[in-house]
Amino acid sequence: MKNFFGIIIIFLIFLAIKTSEAACNYESCPETKPNMVNIHLVPHSHNDVGWLKTVDQYYYGNASEIQRASVQNIIDTVVSQLIKDHKRRFIQVETSFFAKWWQEQLETVKLVVKKLVNEGRFEFTGGAWSMNDEAAVNYQSVIDQFTLGLKWLDETFGVCARPRIGWQIDAFGHSREQASIFAQMGYDGQFFARMDHSDRNNRLDNLAMEMIWNASESLDQMELFTGMLYNHYKNPPGFCFDFLCHDPPIIDGSRYDNNVEARVHDFIIWAQELEVHYRSDHIMVPMGDDFHYENAQSNFKNMDKLIKYVNQLQFKYHVFYSTPGCYLNALHQTLATWPNKTQDFFPYASGSNSFWTGYYTSRPTQKRFERDGNHILQTAKQLSVFAGLSSEQQKEDLNYLRQIMGVMQHHDAITGTSKQAVSNDYDRLLYEGIIGGAGNARDALRVLTNLPEGEFESCLQLNISECAFTKDGADNVVVTLFNPLAHTSSQYVRVPVKEESYQVTDEKGRVVPSEVVPVAWQVLALGYRQNSTQHELVFQASVEKIASYYIKKVDKPESKEIVLPKAAEKSVKQNEKNLEVPKRFKKVHSMKKVETHADEDDSETVVQTSQIKLVIDNNTGRLKTIEMNGVTENIDQNFAIYETWNSGAYVFRQKEDVEMQFLEDKVEFTVYDGSLVKEVHQQFSEWISQVIRIYEGVNRVEFEWLVGPIPTDEDTGREIVTIFSSGISSNGVFYTDSNGREMIVRAKDKREDFTPDLGEQPTSGNYYPVVSRIALEGKSNRMALLNDRAQGGTSMKDGQLELMLHRRLIRDDGYGVGEALNEQKYDKPLIARGKIYLILNSVEESTKVERLAEKEILLPFSVFFSKASSQSSSAVAKTVPSFDDFPQSVHLLTLEPFTDDEILLRVENFLDHTEGNVVSFNIRSIFDALGGVEIRETTLDGNLPLSEMKRFKFHHDASGPSPAEVEYFTTAHKPLAATESQEASDFSVTLHPMQIRTFIIKKK
After folding, report:
1. Range of the domain at 999
2. Under 8 Å between Cβ of 764 and 654
3. Residues labelled catalytic
4. pLDDT digit string (tens) for 138-151?
5. Final residue of a domain: which of 289, 305, 335?
């Protein structure tokens, strides 16, 4: 029987190859019928790249006791069914899964699939490596993972595989920047399935489920058609034909149980319900759900019957297989007008007690780890270009890191909404990717520096002041720094060291000021930390692209020993008992003036550099006043606790009638007053501590928080926030970033298009994702907070900014994960550490300083360690191109190997229309330095010549008379295209505020 089935499949494959006619994209769309309601059935399967099972478990289909799902079987059976009938169609979304499947196929099967793609019957929609989240992701990583997915599709199938539609059906809210990215990649529109329940009801009543989204305040032509699906992304009720469902099949023929009439009637009733909520005579009906189509035969056989018998009625409905692209093409042809949208779709609420705002913060250490992955990826990509790395292992390692970072953007990865075992697997994958990327960086630096034998070790635990390379001593250590930014940057470097005296010199032998500071005792008390180094060497480095600094131990001057504050002594003693912390941590040393303020009677303590003045209230131990940029503001910073009962990985639910609890106990603190850095070490509770830092010459205040283990009990989970309270009259208005890019204005208790349901959860309903920045301002002063990972944030009172740092919960919230968010690391509840930066300024000053700080926080120096003995006096460093001639507002967004003989270059004007202007510069010198022979400009993703970009233009309701024919957006400027023989003037680049331009440089 198996042999017979195999013969049939081979015969069908032969027919599919023999009779196919290549016609893809919109040319392959099925015919629609005028004067009828055209129902576009869209077969699809939503396949999470990890959630309840790991990525591999989902692909191979094991661990079925957790969830029945096998992506390889889904694609197998879908392909086998598509070749049986040329009318059938299917959309594939996640390129990561499909690429894995493709590698395992025989050439015969690949030929069939290529034919299906060329006929438009197997359509890629979305097309990124994963279906990314839109709240916690940074735009750089989103662009990267679309570049990766679309490049794989282009190299495998060519132009017919290029997606034209965004398919963000399972993200938990939608960002304006994501829509802008789609528009910049040339996509015609996008569809999703989740929006606030009040917003959805309002749109249903006003024929506004589909709209034109103006996705940028700074960029022109960033309008994107956006549609909301009616019934999530599921089949119509009663019409799920997958074996995961229990709906009856369609039974025809002369049988007593023939149910065709009843099933057709039910479907028409459903269609009538849909059509009253949409404007055109076209309706899109998804046919699928999570991991459906493992039995594609049952699905397609029943859909064939549904189409046949509904159409036989010749009623008002015409049903057929279609795709989101074909549906949107049909809408474009109608010349209809649509409502307008300008802000975003956050926060998402599925009910009055269910605002999905907890995931903005869930799994805070993994959110930070993802940022570390992006950091090493950008470093490895740039260094690979500069050093010309070309071995197969190097290319494999870099591509693996690209792929894992693509996986990490998935809407159940960076969100923190997967099961713990899956989260652990994400950590494993990312760690492996980072190790490979760090290996590439090492290989490149051996070429690009005068240390051909240098170790160039990375230290992944510098956030807890630990580095294996320096644990036994930092004498004769070389610190090599790589700057991923375009412009020379001056930043402070911290190296874990023993308490000794050191001298730091630069590459020219000049002594660089440095000092040794103690590590906070709360960090030393971490049970899993190796405590051979209890101090950090701090020095300021200035780096254009690559620079090395040399550390040498020198004679030790006298140091002053101090006793810890009382609270510290008590906690250390407790940790000695519970965590076996050595007794030597009872005392710490510092390099200069040390002041202890546990029992001071003075009312204030002043800590200041030449640029910033901090005043600490001795009665509370907390921050009282900040003076910087000529502005003085009373700012109180504290921590607070939300006690929650049924919050979960997705949802933040405050207990009814239970107020947020501020930490009221007096904060004991110690000041370490160095010449380069001033530090205030604070202990707020047994499990919350903080270091406030100000560096000489740096115009922002750093708050490094340490939270955990968070205590819980059987009735109470806890969610920890930090709150900055000022006297600024902000009138309920604040600002949050959109994926690290443009800022969006927020108004407490308000939305752009509807009145939110805030009766049960007024705080959660005012929470927004903060990827890089949250700010507020009054008539004169502005306060901004910048963070080192995605978090939830709000402003519930005038002059107050709030960020959620950490969550430990006791129950699942009922949205599928099936377990409480109660992370354990090292067999103990999770302890998290991170940084927040505060900038205080006059409202009359540009927010450009915040933009510059964002870039340094996201992409600081990459730090590598070697032994000085590795230095070879005969070795000569390879010249690295300089980007310092770029205008100051131009960011080097991407520089990476694209193919064996091509380089991808992206440049960005990172200031918005209120902060900056149009800038022009010339890239001929960069082109030459990279060995360029040709350059061409592409869409944002790098895979479509910009000259070929042509995407649908739709019209707003208020835009005047409807057009007489369909219209399109094309490029607003002449794409750059040049060869090495042309004049330098042909390499001029102009960037408007917020504009990104993408180039492919072919090299010699």
Report:
1. 890-1003
2. yes
3. 170
4. 999 999 999 999 99
5. 335
